[in-house]
Design brief:
ion transport, potassium, metal-binding, mainly alpha, 23 helices, globular, transport, 1% strand, Trk system potassium uptake protein
Amino acid sequence: MQDRLIPILKVLGMVIALFGLTMLFPLVISEAMADAARHAHDEAVLATIGSGVFLWLLTRHNKRELRSRDGFLLVVLIWTVLPIFAALPLLIYLPDLSFTDAYFETMSGLTTTGATVLSGLDNLPASINIWRAQLHLLGGLGVIVLVVAVLPLLGVGGRQMYKAETPGPMKDTKLTPRMEETAKGLWVVYLFFTLLCFIAFWLGGMGWVDAVVHAFSVMGLGGFSSHDASFGHFNSPLLEGIAVVFALIAGMNFATHFLAFRQRSFHPYRVDPELRWYLFIVLGSCLGLALFLWYQDVYVDFLTALRYASFNTISVATTMGLANADFNAWPYFAGLWMLFLCSFSTSAGSTGGGIKMMRAILLYKQVYRELVHLLHPNANLLTRLGGVPVTNKITYAVLAYLFIYIASIVVLSFVLIASGLDVFTAFSAVVATINNTGPGLNQVGPATTYAVLTDFQTWVCSFSMLLGRLELFTLLVVLTPAFWRK
């Protein structure tokens, strides 16, 4: 066991130290603006980098290379340990904040969930709000994918981590001959769109701090805002339009963006099998919910209904989680439909959560194949995706994933109900966290925070966020007895 853990801890030490370096950005902001959180960032950077270097020094003599099985454990350790260090600036600056709430907040940031327990965001130092949003940026395409691009420079291969971390059924996609080049390419595209989003917000009238916070939040499909009123603070149709356009971009497969950049062509978008379904379902739902809200007299005119329905539907469906209205006050159908969308709308390889559109399409095609098979029992029917036959092995894996996904929602909802939450709040909290969306309904709606939960309920939601971000299997496989056998 010791021989197995030491090489994993060695890499974990490197990751913690590198993560500490990312804390320098809010520290520089804090120093430049002379805000009240300077000491918090100072101590957090020293503690994080010091811990990472110490762990690496203890284990540096081990030369064993990581195996695929090690990758699962390493990813789980990284995603459970980094929120502890990420919470340090919050714990130091906000001494009344409990460790449970601080861990929830940073887990929410890194998993790009965007559920918050904090209030009074408008009065927080800019560097604290930027740090919260920066966690979305890092978590957007996975801390590990970033690490895969950096660790090879330190002599550590990253293929195992990439395969365990990469979102959706694109783990074996080879966009370039070398895994490191793929990771770097995805991050270059991701940062390019983030920069464009920042410039658009800034030119649209946001201050630069708000533009940074919301660009990180939108492209990471996170949902943290620097204002208690979330995006409703700005009350600007222009800024809302910018946000939904970039949220839709972030909800697409970044491998498709990468290929379009490299080929300098829109062809990858035209042949992406998920894209047309993604846009049709999300944009169609915007129109449908606008008509519904207008018919229900929630808004007096159709254009106003279309504005609020579009922003909040795209925000929830892409798992961004920002809000410009309290959709918890809308008829229940609207909120439930948006939560339904967030469970499958975004593409594999995007920064969004949920089971991903690719799995939803495969499930639909499998159901259709079974129906046709009833009519033609001897027919040899193939499921195709983008014109390519899909093997039964992949179909069975998707069916198993769906079973675990539904079972997780049911079990976690019952746990929250047994702990005292009402059914609606419990169900929506689990759906919103396991899909990394953020706001739920009822007590955890967009106008409230998760601070209403007890410590136990907060830990359950933290686990739910981690489970969803690691796409269930990566975390659950580590919990099986078979994983720990030699």
